Amino acid sequence: MSIRPGATPDRATLRRSLLQQREQFAASPQAPAADAALARHLHAVLLRLEPQCLGVYWPIRCEFNPRSAIEYDKGMPRLDPMPALALPYCRRDPPQMQYRRWDGRVPALRDEHGIPATDGPAVVPDVVVVPCVGYTRAGLRLGYGGGYFDRWLAAHPHATAVGAAWSGSEIDAAAFAAGPHDLPLMLIVTEQGVVT
């Protein structure tokens, strides 16, 4: 994302701009090929990490669907054994997030923010795939502003956090002032490959 030299937009402005760009990208002719490439790269990362319990997310607002990386089989080895899956469930008051075991079917439940979720038992994944509205090369993530993933990651430092993002949502480090709650992800995967 291009920002005027010396300008540091506030997070809300940055978020709005990135979400608008993401919607335009998702409607572009390049989106299907980018989706397949991101699935391939994320699948390769998951093969190396060998999660026992994998926390993913239900895609909203033109996010990449991590399920396509789990199910990816175009010449790639299958995840073996297949990890248990979990989806986040967010509560408003107090604001907190937990992962719940997921059977992979379309969720019938919604969390307190209206995002599809599951009613499975609470679990703590060893690897989580985290959606990124924006990201920096240093692994910092801009989300939707609720702090749910930030709080969960701070409370579970042993979990390996992998961001999923479109390459067009990269933020120049000079345009993103990290706060004390911002924890870098282990890596971020885009359709262009792995960002460390």
In the predicted model, the low-confidence regions spanning at least 5 consecutive residues are 1-6
CATH class: Alpha Beta
The multimeric state of the shown protein is single chain
Q: Kindly, what is the distance between the CA atoms of the first and last residues, rounded to a whole number of angstroms?
A: 18 Å
Sheet-strand content, in percent, reads 15-25%
Count of alpha and pi helical runs: 4
Mean pLDDT: 91
Radius of gyration: 16 Å
Fraction of residues in helices? 10-25%
**CATH-level-4 superfamily name:** NagB/RpiA/CoA transferase-like
Report the sheet with the most strands, covering strand number, pairing sense and barrel closure. 8 strands, mixed
Order of helices and strands: HHEHEEEEEEEEHEEE
CATH topology: Rossmann fold
Q: Please name the CATH architecture.
A: 3-Layer(aba) Sandwich
Please count the beta strands (DSSP E, at least 2 residues each): 12
* Widest sheet, order of strands: 6-3-2-1-7-10-11-12
SS-based class: alpha/beta
| Shape assignment | globular
Number of domains: 1
Can you describe this structure?
This protein has 196 residues and is of the alpha/beta class. It has a single domain (11-195), classed as NagB/RpiA/CoA transferase-like (Rossmann fold, 3-Layer(aba) Sandwich), CATH 3.40.50.10420. 24% of the residues lie in helices and 23% in strands. The protein has helices at residues 11-26, 31-49, 67-70, 148-155, and strands spanning 53-55, 84-91, 96-102, 109-110, 116-117, 122-123, 127-131, 134-135, 141-142, 160-164, 187-190, 193-195. The protein has an eight-stranded mixed sheet, with helices on both faces. The two termini are 18 Å apart.
